[in-house]
């Protein structure tokens, strides 16, 4: 298994934040679609692989390394950074955006199949998915 270090987490998180800040959400989502396609092409497969054990280990490693990155936690750039790190390692994962109406809130998280990678279930279950990348 390849480990995810704090340097990579910080770099990916910084890159996602810059794209969001200067490009906005729609161009950032389009950029991440391109990154996913590039990861698929680089691996030479029709799609990314999904191994629940490996991907959950990487997600835990990502969360551990994230503790050392001095940036405020924000679900969108943190999720974008995590998913890109997973794609580069050949793991299939998807980014979900969801909303809650009462009181209104929005959130985003990373999943691989039914496996939540970025958040505990008790947080995510409050949101209805409205978009998936």
Question: Which key terms come to mind for this protein?
Answer:
single chain; 133 residues; alpha+beta; 17% strand; globular
Please, could you describe this protein's structure?
The chain is an alpha+beta fold and 133 residues long. It is 53% helix and 17% strand. It has five helices and four strands. The two termini are 25 Å apart. The mean pLDDT is 84.
Largest sheet: 4 strands, antiparallel
The best one-word shape is globular
Mean model confidence by pLDDT: 84
> What is the straight-line distance between the termini?
25 Å
Give the total of beta strands.
Answer: 4
Number of helices: 5
Strand order of the largest sheet: 3-2-1-4
Report the uncertain regions. none
Radius of gyration: 14 Å
- Based on helices, strands and strand pairing, what is the structural class? alpha+beta
Order of helices and strands: HHHHEEEHE
Helix content: 40-55%
Instruction: Note the beta-strand portion.
Output: 15-25%
């Amino acid at each position: 298994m390849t480990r995810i270090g704090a340097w990579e987490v910080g770099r990916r998180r910084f890159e996602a934040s810059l794209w969001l800040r200067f490009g906005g959400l729609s161009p950032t989502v389009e950029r991440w679609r391109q990154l996913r396609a590039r990861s698929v092409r680089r691996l030479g497969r029709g799609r990314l692989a999904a191994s629940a054990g490996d991907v959950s280990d990487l997600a835990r490693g990502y969360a551990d390394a994230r503790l050392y990155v001095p940036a405020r936690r924000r679900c969108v750039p943190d999720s974008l950074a995590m998913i890109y790190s997973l794609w580069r390692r050949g793991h299939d994962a998807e980014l979900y955006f969801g909303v809650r109406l009462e009181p209104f809130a929005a959130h985003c998280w990373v999943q691989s199949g039914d496996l939540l990678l970025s958040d505990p279930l008790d947080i995510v279950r409050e949101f209805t998915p409205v978009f998936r990348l």
